[in-house]
Amino acid sequence: MRAEAARLLRAAPAGVRAPFEDVAKRRWIEYRPAPRPGVSLGELEPDARKAAHRLLATALRPHAFAQAMGVVALEEVLDREEGYGRGRHSDDYRVIVFGEPGPAGRWGWRFEGHHLSATMTLDGDAVSPTPVFLGANPLATYYRGRPVLRPLGPEQDLAFELLDALPESLRGHVLRWPEAPVDIYSGPRADVVPPPPGVPAAELPRAARERLEDLVALYLDRLPADVRPAVDRDALTFAWEGPPERGGRHYYRVQGPDLLIEYDNTSADGNHAHTVLRCPESDFGGDLLREHRAERPHP
Fold it and tell me: What are the E-state strand segments in the chain?
């Protein structure tokens, strides 16, 4: 990350950099089409644009990087579906670096645009790797019933497999509300107020618990192994809102100590999805900053 951030800073204009102490810009997540800090891909020369993509690739494993690039490409698909009336384009993704990348000290970076936000915060070699948001509109594009592009398919399929593994006696406890919310509960906010937890993993039968662990692994495996947060799988809970049938609007969440995973597919008649991996206490380097202050008292 240090090497690729330095490459970007050498190639990009000055607006790509902001002070680490600029909390308003640094503690930021916005997955809707809206103004945001940083320099857009459209403002970058080819070398700088490639550096921005290379920096993003340090934070995502290959399959998750492919998902992210699919999300960027979908911006052109959505623009076409809307009749080119809202000015959406795949260059409207912004990158920003906070502070000075170096072997010591605090710094960070973000790559963000509509339906994509990845924030990394560093203190020396320690990395706080959340929030990571991926969305898709359309969720899937089909040709004669066959999916052509479906970047968030695994996040949907594994959740339905988990539901299918539940006995009827537990379904009523997991299905917390008959209608799905309009958006994920965490929303585009720096601070998360965790929603009510779901059914504990310990209460799930073996097949359902295995699917729950697979689902959590899917989100954690977006990140490289050396920056992935640790998770207490025995403390996980799972909740679903909305109809349990495929094709409708639905939502689920997985929670644990300093973990919140959310998925919603609640717009465009169930063809517009949001997913997010967050560590509510550690997002934007909250855990690193606490350790930093404990080791180096500040007045």
Answer: 17-18, 39-40, 93-98, 106-113, 116-123, 126-128, 132-136, 141-143, 146-149, 175-177, 199-200, 237-241, 250-256, 259-265, 273-278
The tens digit of pLDDT for each residue in 24-61 reads 999 999 999 999 999 999 999 999 999 999 999 999 99
- Determine the 3-state secondary structure of 47 from DSSP: helix
Residue 270 has pLDDT above 90, yes or no: no
Evaluate whether 223 touches 129 at the Cβ level (below 8 Å): yes
Measured CA to CA, the distance from residue 275 to residue 252 in angstroms comes to 10
**Local structure of 102: helix, strand or coil:** coil
What global pTM score does this model have?
0.95
CB 64 within 8 A of CB 151: no
Supply 74's token pair.
Answer: 């979908």
Which amino acid would we find at residue 253? R
Rounded distance between C-alpha atoms, residue 234 and residue 213, angstroms: 10
CA distance 261 to 263: 7
